[in-house]
Amino acid sequence: MNITNLTLTELAAKFQSGELTSRAITEAFIKNIEAHDSDINAFVNTTFDLAREMADAADSRYQNKTLLSPLDGIPMDLKDVVSTQEAPTTASSKILENYIPPFDATVWQKLKAAGVVLLGKTNTDEFTMGASTETSAFGVTKNPHNTQKVAGGSSGGPAASVAAEFSAGSIGTDTGGSIRQPASFCGVTGLKVSYGRVSRWGTIPMASSLDTIGPIAKTAQDCALILQTIAGQDPKDSTTSDKPVPDYLAGLGKSLAGMTIGIPKEYIVDGIDPEVLNTFNATKAICEELGAKLVDISLANTKYAVPTYYIIAPAEISANMSRFDGIRFGTLPDGTTDLQSIYKETRTQGLGDEVKRRILIGGYALSAGYYDAFYRKAQKVRTLIKQDFDTAFLEVDAIITPVSPTPAFDIGENKDDPLKMYLEDIFTIPASLAGICGISTPIGKSKDGLPIGAQILGPAFTEDRILNIAHQIQLNIT
Q1: Cβ contact 201:308 at 8 Å
Q2: How far is CA 96 from CA 81, 130, 335, 338, in A?
Q3: pTM to 2 decimals?
């Protein structure tokens, strides 16, 4: 039996039945990481000794019939912006390379309480700012399907880890597409939850009104199992919702018959790769075969989403990054004698070009004389984008689109062209601005063997609906 080839759901069933021990499952993943991660660079830090201890504890609970949850004993990794007391949390930045938090993020508290085994922390673009992990201070993560290609970003490490069978599942963050795009590039399933569905407390922020935390795994069923554990209100995070958490697994068996799915004309644009379009059309056909009705819709303000995002996000970044000053966070540089030089040298030495670029853009957008012209106007357009979705969801139950205009691109291809890199998120940013949920599901491969994904969007707090649609597609895709 190839243990690491199994889905998270299959591994959980085999552990809970006694067919496999948690230690055996964990050792299989550790062996894979040790053998192959030097080629992929998915992990920033590994926690193998801790993982073995946690696996042995799970096996002991099994013997005593005191298992904690359906995830008990299952090895996972965390994107390296999720705070953990057990390992450094670096945000893939030099400024935090030695930082070990004195607390656990809520999402890790919940997973740890459920018995999840921690394999380590996975790579990201620095402070999650990027679409390829090429801004990471610890090197780019390579796509397991073709190591000349990027794994996507910013959650490229988590997506590559699942795709390379280094872990059964992972936790990523999605601000403008950072779970969905790498999931598509790596051929796995990635869920961007509704804003407020999962607590952000203890996770290093990028843009606080956009950040979400969600699962990456092989299948929609796996993602549902993880979401069941991490979703819900958190008194430490005032943005979390008090809406009840549904039974996500129970919702996976529903027929698509009678469901109406919208196809926004603004997402089928010139320049989209023909293979992406052909695979997307095949997925539409599957939905129709399963009984769904497909209708054309319009999301008229989609064209403004990228410029709107790249005003709002950097503005919030500039505020969030102010804490990295060499005093509260970051290493105090040698030879600094006054406050201004501490700030300047800490950030000059500790932050990469993309982070500095976004801080400058954000500071400019919020500065006196420009706030109304840029930031306030961007917030008004954000409202229009949300209203487009609200109107569409009066007519349709869900929306299906491509995730990215192309399959994974070459490492270095867009690195020196920030504007081209920003456009990689053209299909994922609108949902983030609207605060709705979305999932990337694998739907095929290019002639070169590169994965292609489809994005399913639903109204806020309908994760059960889009998980089921993705699940039905995955059951019926050839």
Answers
A1: no
A2: 10, 18, 19, 21
A3: 0.96
CATH superfamily label, 3-251: Amidase signature (AS) domain (3.90.1300.10)
Distance CA 131, CA 432 (A): 15
The answer to whether the CB of 430 falls within 8 A of the CB of 385 is yes
Tokens of 231: 């979703």
Structure tokens at 196: 């407020």
- Of 445, 379, 371, which is closest to residue 408 (Cα–Cα)? 445
Dihedral, CA atoms, 311, 313, 317, 318, nearest 10 degrees?
10
Catalytic residue positions, numbered:
79, 154, 178
3-class secondary structure per residue, the chain: CCHHHCCHHHHHHHHHHCCCCHHHHHHHHHHHHHHHHHHHCCEEEECHHHHHHHHHHHHHHHHCCCCCCCCCCCEEEEECCECCCCCCCCCCCHHHCCCCCCCCCHHHHHHHHCCCEEEEEECCCHHHCCCCCCCCCCCCCEECCEEEEECCCCCHHHHHHHHCCCCCEEEEEECCCCCHHHHHHHCCEEEECCCCCECCCCECCCCCCCCEEEEEECCHHHHHHHHHHHECCECCECCCCCCCCCCCCHHHHCCCCCCEEEEEHHHCCCCCCHHHHHHHHHHHHHHHHCCCEEEEECCHHHHHHHHHHHHHHHHHHHHHHHHECCCCECCCCCCCCCHHHHHHHHHHHHCCHHHHHHHHHHHHHHCCCCHHHHHHHHHHHHHHHHHHHHHHCCCCCEEEEECCCCCCCECCCCCCCHHHHHHHHCCCHHHHHHCCEEEEEEEEECCCCCEEEEEEEECCCCHHHHHHHHHHHHHHCC
* Tens digit of pLDDT at every position of the chain (478 positions): 899 999 999 999 999 999 999 999 999 999 999 999 999 999 999 999 999 999 999 999 999 999 999 999 999 999 999 999 999 999 999 999 999 999 999 999 999 999 999 999 999 999 999 999 999 999 999 999 999 999 999 999 999 999 999 999 999 999 999 999 999 999 999 999 999 999 999 999 999 999 999 999 999 999 999 999 999 999 999 999 999 999 999 999 999 999 999 999 999 988 899 999 999 999 999 999 999 999 999 999 999 999 999 999 999 999 999 999 888 887 777 777 788 888 888 888 889 999 999 999 999 999 988 899 999 999 999 999 999 999 999 999 999 999 999 999 999 998 777 767 777 889 999 999 999 999 999 999 999 999 999 999 999 999 999 999 999 999 998 6
